[in-house]
Every structure is written in structure tokens, then in C-alpha cells.
Amino acid sequence: MTPQRHTKILATLGPASNTKEVIKGLLEAGVNIFRLNFSHGTHADHSAVVKIIRGLEKDMNRSVGIVADMQGPKLRIGDFENDKIALEIGQTFRFDLDAAPGNETRVCLPHPEILKSLEEGSAIFLDDGKVRARITKKGDDFVEAKIESGAALSNKKGLNLPGAVIPIPALTEKDKVDLVAALDMGVDWIAQSFVQTADDVAEAKALINDRALLMVKLEKPSAIENLEEIIHLADGAMLARGDLGVEIAPEKVPATQKRVVRYVREQGKPIVVATQMLESMITNARPTRAEASDVATAVYDGADAVMLSAETAAGDYPVRAVEIMDRICRYTEEDETYTEMMAISHPDTMDGDPSDAITAAAYYVSQDVDAAFIVTYTLSGSTALRMARQRPEVPILCLTPDVNVARRLSVSYGVISVFDPETGDDDFIGPARHAAKIAIEKDIGDKGQTFVMTAGVPFGEKGSTNLLRIAEVG
Predict the structure, then answer these.
(1) Could you give the percent of the chain with pLDDT greater than 90?
(2) Which of 101, 181, 283, 292 lies 20 to 30 angstroms, CA to CA, from 134?
(3) Do both 196 and 330 map to the same domain?
(4) Looking at residue 80, what DSSP letter applies?
(5) Is residue 94 annotated as part of the catalytic site, yes or no?
(6) Do residue 151 and residue 183 come from a single domain?
(7) What distance in Å separates the CA atoms of residue 128 and residue 371, rounded to the nearest whole number?
């Protein structure tokens, strides 16, 4: 298998994996970046895990990113008198604002703003789509619907309204408190749930205030419809196929995945494919063939990263799940078809951007001279992101004097990010020697091999990538 995997692995931490021993095992198995799910656990729990990760990061001499995933608004029905009810297809069922426990004919829907936005003919999905209903009548404080599928419903099940832009903010008061706490912990990315419009993104960006990067979760059809405006403001994206797959037809999910991955990549921002990738490994030591194919498809699509959720957070085999995902990614990247697909989908150079022109040139030069790796010196991370956008066949060694930039880049395709306050001399020869030394230390280069390097001269000026050099590991 290839010594360096380009597609990154994002793993969720939880009760099955929040100890130092298991987190170290996950890193050794191939995790590049961790997700903390703020839908569960306390701030103290998450803070303790962050400290473990930072300690291991230092001990293992590598950059490790952390994503804090905000819960977002949770739309749920109320309770039932006997905790659950039986349903019949074709029956009429009422959703209203009455807080009294429900029965076989009605239940509370404690979201008046949602009731107002519903119309006759609108669909209501409950319990991840297991129960589906169609609205037949609307009143001032209720709607009546005909049950189209599903046999049972229980307390506080989730609610989805496919095709509707729901008039509630993406960030709840809980999210705002969690966001501040996560930033104080020093996380690298904030993942924003329930994004529907660019205004949702702008609100989150203002609250983050450059203390972390923002990863928008694409889990609503309205987010896909507003993809260009949303990605323009965001720093990265996560295609959350679980919730999205409830609200759009299953046959549309694969094509949507390919379109989203391609578009976000073209914008030079990292894209994570998430949800149910190795779901059977929550309880089984081996994935299904369909799950292995699903992971491989995300790799073939050119995703920056693939994500494990409950597999590592609450599963019986967290480390093994990472090991298998690592193997799937590596073998897929070795396939000739994969190389061809990356070349076919190669993005155009951004018009009028000298730094992007230099980066694109470095990509082609690296192929012509059979380079073993590509080096980028960067202050902000933008040069490394431009190079990751090219999807080169060789590793991207990114050297940056900003530890936060190094951690944030851990999600980006092919990037081996190194916190490196020293660059060597300012004559562009010293930095090449310095980079070659680090490449040997990181086991991505050997003496005598050729590499391509981009940087800005003078060193230390942000956004000044203007030089390309071919060098040899001495």
C-alpha cells in the first residue's frame, strides 16, 4: 500500500474512545482530525478530551485538528400518554400546539413558527423518515395530515420537512454558548448544523471572529440549492448524508454527493463526506461490501476527508474501523482509475490569481520531473489549499510558522502540515535544504529524490506566493 494516504480520516470521539489510550490508538491507525459532538457531553468532558489530543499531538510530533460540531435546532414532536402509538396507513393525524400528551389521533408539535410555514400538500417525515405524512388541512394552530407510511411513533421523535425552508435560526442559544466554549478550548474548526442560507453562515462567521474556521454541514435541501452562496462564505463543508438523505430521494444522494464534492473542491476548500460510512462496524468487526464501496466512492469523487461517526464514538471496534477505512482509502488511491478520475476533474486555474498560477505550475512541473513530494511555505494556509485543490499524486509538505494553520490543514487532501517557525535563510536555498530535512524526518523523501517547492519572497509576507523551485533532497 502507498506510504502516504491523501484522503484524510475524520473520527468522532465519544464514550467508546475518549481515553488517552484509545485516542492514541486512533491516531496510530490513521486518524488525521477529530470531531467532538456537542449534541452530547458536557463542556468539561470536551475540554478534557481536547487536552488529551493536544498532549498526544506534542508527544507524537504531528499536527492534529479538532472539529467542534454544534447541535443546531432539533425539531421534535411531544410525548404520548403511553410513550408510543400504533399508526395505520391512510388515517388522519393531527399536529397542534396543545402541550397535553398525545394519543393515536394527535400529538404536540412545539414549534409554532413551523406550523405557520406548513401548507396543504406539504410532507412531514418523522423518526428519520420511518413515518411519512401529507398535510390535508391547515388551521391557525394545527395541521391535519394523512399517514402514508409507518406503523409506530414514540416520544420526541425527530421531524423533517422536505423541500421547506424552515424559519428558524441555524444557531440556537445552546449553540452560541457551546461555540464560545469550544473556541476557548482552542478547537480548529466549528461545524455548523442546519445551514439553509448564506445568512446562517454569516452569523456563525461573525461569532467565530477568526478564532477558528467554519465548516458548514450540508444536510438540508435548501443548503444544496444555495450551495454557491454558502460555500463562498464558508471555509469548508461537510456533506451530512444522513439528514440530507431523509429529505431528498435516495436515488438523488449519489449524484448530489458528486456535484457537491466537485464544486467545493473547485473553490479550493476542504470537503468532508460523512454519515453511515462503516455503520455496521458499530457492532461488527467487518464492514459490509456496500459500505466499503461507499467509502471508496467518496475517495473516487475526490473528497478531502471521509468521516466516522458512531463507529468510533460509541462502537465496539473504534480503532479497527479506522484501520479498515485507512486500507480502503489507500487501495482506492492506488487504482489507475482513481488517478485518471483526478486528472479528468482537474480544476482550471483561478483567473487573475498569480499565486494560483504558481501553484498550478508546480503541480505540472512535479509530474514532469517525477517529484517525490511538493513543498509549500505558507503563513495563512492558502498556498497549501491551492495545492490540495490540484489533487497531486504526491504528498504536499506544508511548512507554516502558525500552529493553528498547521492544525486546520489536517483535514485537507494530501497535506502533511508541519508547525515550523524556522524556515532557513531568506535566499530560497536555505529553505529548500530545511524542507528536505523535514521531508526525511516525516518519511516522505529520501536523499537524491527531486521535489518542487513554492514560496513567497520575501519570506514572512502573507499572500505573496511568487516563486517555484525544483530541488533535490541532499
Answers:
(1) 84
(2) 101
(3) yes
(4) B
(5) no
(6) no
(7) 48
200: containing domain: 8-72+169-342
Q: Grid cell 461555540 — which residue?
A: 179
Q: What is the mean pLDDT of residues 18-24?
A: 98
Active site residue 217: yes
Please measure the distance between the N-terminal and C-terminal CA atoms of the chain and give it in whole angstroms: 26
Query: Which residue of the set 5, 217, 386, 407 is catalytic?
Result: 217
Mean pLDDT, the chain, integer: 93
Nearest 5°: CA angle at 461, between 404 and 384? 50
Catalytic residue among 76, 138, 211, 327: 76
Encode pLDDT of 377-403 as tens digits. Answer: 999 999 999 999 999 999 999 999 999
Tell me: the pLDDT tens digits for 171-200? 999 999 999 999 999 999 999 999 999 999
Catalytic member of 5, 8, 35, 408: 35
Instruction: Please indicate, yes or no, if residue 3 is contained in any of the structural domains.
Output: no
CB neighbourhood size of 28 (10 A)? 13
Q: Which residue has the cell 536523499?
A: 447
* Residue closest to 329 by CA, chosen among 296, 356, 359: 296
- 410 with 389, same domain: the answer is yes
Asked whether residue 406 is domain-assigned, the answer is yes
**Catalytic residue selected from 275, 312, 378, 423:** 275
Other residues' Cβ atoms within 10 Å of the Cβ of residue 340: 10
pTM: predicted TM-score of the whole model, two decimal places: 0.93
373-377 vs 450-456, strand pairing mode:
parallel
Query: Is 185 in contact with 46 (CB distance < 8 Å)?
Result: yes
Active site (annotated) includes residue 469: no
